Amino acid sequence: MDLKNLFQMNPDRSQYPEMGEDGKPIIDLSSHKYLKIWQGPQHPGVTGNMSLELTVDGDEIVESKTHVGYLHRGFEKLMERRKFIQCFPTCIRMCVAEPDPNEYILAACIEDLGGIEVPEMAQWLRTLALEMARLQVLLRGVPGQGGTFALGLGYQWGNYIRDLILDRFEELTGGRVYHMYILPGGVRGLLPDGFKKRMEENLKLADEFVKSIDDLMYNNAVFKQRAVGLAHIPKEWIDKYGVYGPAARAAGVMRDVRKTHPYLKYAELDFEPYTTTESDVYARSRVRWYDLQTTIDLIRQIMAKMPEKGEIKAETPNVMHWRIPKGETYQKCESSRGEYGLYMVTDGTDKPRRVNLKGPSYTHANALLDKLLINANIADTAGIMVSLATCPPEIER
Amino acid sequence: MIELIKDIESRFNTSDYIQKLKHLAFITVEKKQAISLVTYLRDYHKYSSLTLLTAVDWIEEGKFQLTYLINNPQNFTEIGVRVMIDRENATMESSHHLWENMATYQRELREMFGIDFPGSPRIEENFILEGWDNIPPYRRDFDTKEYTENTYFPRPGRESNDPATYMKSKMYPND
What we know:
The structure holds two protein chains of two kinds.
Chain A: H1 3-6, E1 18-19, E2 25-26, E3 35-39, E4 51-57, E5 60-67, H2 75-79, H3 87-91, H4 100-114, H5 120-147, H6 153-173, E6 182-183, E7 186-187, H7 195-218, H8 221-227, H9 237-241, H10 245-249, H11 257-260, H12 281-305, E8 327-335, E9 338-346, E10 352-358, H13 361-372, H14 381-387
Antiparallel strand pairs in A: 1-2, 3-4, 4-5, 6-7, 8-9, 9-10
Chain B: H1 2-11, E1 14-21, E2 24-29, H2 31-44, E3 49-58, E4 63-72, E5 77-86, H3 102-113, H4 144-151, H5 163-171
Parallel strand pairs in B: 2-5
Antiparallel strand pairs in B: 1-2, 3-4, 4-5
């Protein structure tokens, strides 16, 4: 018996589905060739509250449609009815996992339109907070890719070290998940006594974790077999579909706002974002693994280079009566998922006229995911989705 | 960027040019030339990446402002192309053929602002809202507070008890 063919998982389904004249697949559910299944909104293999309407032929996906709206709270609309300072508690909730970039881009928009210069010390502290946010996301996100292929151990390890980083956030900002540390004009406080020493201890653990995850995931036969070659994104799709951050860098395209538009203190830090060309799930995960190392190194550099003391907040008008002149701006930063920006329009009143958040998930989870899932196996859906680091709240702000 | 803007101004009817930052500028163009300008920037000036498409409701002027923010990954500059369209029967030419991700933005704008983009893929399908029968919720004249008060009933507050008295009444009901 030919065992190789017996376990062959790639039957020729090139005839299904037939394509119509308009280029869309003809899917007749009554033909019994296809089955429609929903992955999400409550599903361990979905990154948050969204669902995928999958049409499958056997275990192969022939069509996918992303559905969002399970988490819509109308944040952008709510911010139009709030004073600028009152927008912060709303804005940070646009991405639960990594709220600090939200704080930064909102503060940066207000400062740009209101003509506020941020003191140097505050810029260092902001850079530190953003890198700490990236670290805590990647500590969970990098091994989380293994979790989608039933390798859950690394995720538990990562969560432990992430919790220690949240301890550091708690002593720096008072909050573990939502911090509200970055405010217009600067930040809320200096580093507590002994913060650097405790952070260094955590970073040493993170260093060990990085090595362990290399052995556990990237040299694991099952993980490699599942992830290598899966969901390839050609280089030509990067602009066409709006691919950002690690997903673009895995395709050999340098997309990192920290390098292309250095903001805060990134121009004074020595780092080179990792790029590769394989552009599959394995490569995207590997890029994030290198990002994790870069972030650990950047936190060390920031703590070594930042001054001990200094002004942490510029003088601003009374925030409850602050009228910002008419104008518009777009401010962005690099989140762990890619470019994260905020478009703000003001009309001279004490509230924003319009706020529009642009997160990478908006394009990754819609146009791109719908395309990538075609011809994929159902079992690989979670792996592909996590490799794009989709975060539904930033789609349906 | 100045040379680029001069080139645009010589070819299109533009106004209100603002150089916001070193790498960011905004310019307003007539509605009928908007998609031509965005296509021109994409094909001839390497503004090959769409950052976002969104709308601003200027209800006092009876206009919607559409902003196409496009990015040049070669020199890292960004241009916001503004288009003013009438608020009544708001319609804009679809540009889904330019970027694969454009259709999602257009679908969202139709649902949230009521701006139609005829011919855009799946434009009729719900994006976030399901069974919405009110005016598009991101328009300025949609009152979130009023809608909430009319749609949802006020929830009665929780009943609170003194723990000691409550436990005593539960454990020794006859005392």
